[in-house]
Specification:
Layout lengths: L1 E5 L3 H12 L3 E6 L10 E4 L1 H9 L9 E2 L2 E6 L4 E6 L1 H7 L3 E4 H11 L4 E5 L3 E7 L2 E6 L3 E4 L1 E4 L6 H7 L4 E14 L5 E6 L4 E8 L2 E9 L10 H7 L5 H9 L6 E8 L9 E3 L2 H4 L8 H16 L6 H27 L4 H13 L2 H20 L10
Parallel strand pairs: 1-2, 1-12, 2-8, 5-14, 12-18
Antiparallel strand pairs: 3-7, 4-7, 5-6, 9-10, 10-11, 13-16, 13-17, 14-15, 15-16
Helix pairs in contact: 1-4, 1-9, 2-9, 2-12, 3-12, 9-10
Length: 382
């Protein structure tokens, strides 16, 4: 089958890799003139790790295998922690890694049946009974099917269904990479309506994120001094990170999500953020796109006819649960009422670590099963 993948990010290259390895001829169309390091860091949970391994991508030499995760108060006191050893024994390792390293691994693993076309922004996609026509400023490409992996602001989705509702989380996030050695423990700290995360990514560096309310009545930090003042209550690993900053983080954006997933049409199928952008509160946004790639291969084994229905059957329930759970976690994390926060913190303190392990296992298990499923298995993996 001839397939065009629109977008060369993690989701697009995962799809191209998976489809190419399954015998399809794939053309990746990317608007950027060259692949460059984009984004900061990412947590790759076992579900994503397993799918990536089926694509020939091994993260063990490019990131840090996490030994544990801690949730803390702003003053550094631990609310709950999880040793990832139990999770690793059942489902495999979790890595902290830069997004650039994941992208480089996917690019290097592309089979010969995949062609990458850079510097071509897609202007339109036409669907016909026997295929699709993808038009760029340079020319047009024809194929049996198009996969749109062009992100939250997907132009392909806009063309297919028009404007769709985006849901704001009411928060703004700053992200970056810093020289800070945390060993192999990832830390997330919750303050008075704010949040800080610090994740080791190897070589004495960490990925970090700072999240702050962004309602109309809230003044957002505009420079390094005001940013540090907004997060001045933090101590421990989060405080060390904030103290180490010498410039404003390179990335800043409002955290928004698609209110409802959009899956596409029979000949133009959406993948990743373009289909189901979610808040990053479980670290599963990229993992869901990577899982999508595996599901697409399974859905297309039966041909184009009915592939969209098979794909949705594999992905809809799974993705929607992760999306809604991530939304709820973000809301709870940013409670500003002191009484509600004290109650939340008390509950977290008395919750045994085994409960956290069960929650994470339940989160990653469907993706692990998807990675190991036979390609002809079209049952739901939710």
């Amino acid at each position: 089958m001839e397939i065009i993948v629109i977008g060369g990010g993690i989701g697009g290259l995962s799809a191209a890799n998976a489809l190419g390895r399954d015998g399809h001829r794939v053309t990746v169309v990317e608007r950027a003139t060259r692949f460059e390091p984009v984004g900061a860091g990412i947590v790759m949970a076992p579900n994503a790790v397993h799918v990536l391994r089926t694509l020939g991508v091994d993260l063990s030499t490019a990131g840090t295998e996490l030994a544990g995760m801690q949730m803390c108060l702003a003053d550094g006191r631990i609310l709950t922690q999880m040793d990832t050893g139990g999770l690793t024994a059942v489902h495999g390792p979790t890595f902290g890694i830069t997004r650039a390293a994941v992208h480089e691994g996917l690019e290097a693993a592309l089979p010969e049946s995949v062609e990458v076309v850079l510097g071509q922004a897609v202007e339109s996609v036409e669907q016909h009974a026997d295929g699709v026509v993808v038009r760029t400023a340079i020319g047009e490409l024809r194929a049996d099917l198009a996969i749109a992996a062009d992100g939250l602001g997907s132009g392909v989705r806009q063309q297919l269904v028009g404007d769709v509702a985006l849901r704001s989380s009411g928060t703004t996030c700053w992200r970056g990479l810093a020289d800070l050695d945390l060993g192999r423990i990832a830390v997330e700290a919750w303050g008075s309506g704010t949040r800080v995360g610090v994740v080791p990514v190897g070589n004495g560096r960490c990925y970090y994120f700072l999240v702050h309310p962004s309602r109309p009545e809230v003044d957002l930090p505009r420079d390094l001094a005001s940013l540090k003042a907004a997060f001045a209550e933090y101590d421990g690993a989060a405080g060390r990170l904030i103290g180490s900053l010498e410039a404003m983080p390179p990335l800043r954006h409002e955290l928004v999500e698609l209110d409802q997933p959009v899956w596409g049409t029979e000949r133009v199928i959406l993948l990743g953020d373009g289909a189901h952008a979610m808040t990053p509160n479980q670290g599963q946004g990229a993992a869901m796109a990577i899982e999508d790639a595996r599901a697409l291969v399974m859905a297309l084994r039966g041909g184009v006819g009915g592939a969209l229905d098979r794909y949705v059957n594999l992905r809809a329930a799974r993705v929607r649960k992760v999306q809604l759970d991530s939304r709820r976690i973000g809301e709870i994390a940013h409670w500003e009422n002191p009484v509600a926060r004290r109650l939340r913190n008390m509950i977290l303190r008395v919750t045994p670590s085994t409960a956290a392990q069960r929650t994470v296992r339940a989160l990653v298990a469907p993706g692990v099963r998807l990675a190991s499923a036979t390609v002809g298995d079209h049952g739901s993996h939710s």
